[in-house]
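Write out the 3D structure for:
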Amino acid sequence: MTTPDTVQDTAQAPAASRRNEKVGNVVSTKMQKTIVVEVEMRKAHPKYKRIVKSSKKFYAHDEQNSARVGDVVRIRETRPTSKLKRWALEEIVRRSSLGQIEDAAPAAV
């Protein structure tokens, strides 16, 4: 026997997991409200069984311009925002230590 609450929970679970998510490093923040995230993929070679690294860059929408170069971020697939942007910044997983040094340097000068 199912109650309306459990039916509603099961209906929301597939919708939330349908969107693809990736974790990668921020490579560029030079555009307004846009970041470039490089995602590294590790895969075994089909014949030689050795781990091969390959990377791909994704353009992601960053509404508050909160991400900095070197940050590790999670991006989520969304509807197309522009010609190249199909991803949006979900959260900043880990801040870069380089960004903190750069913020402190202009204040001292």
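The radius of gyration is 19 Å.
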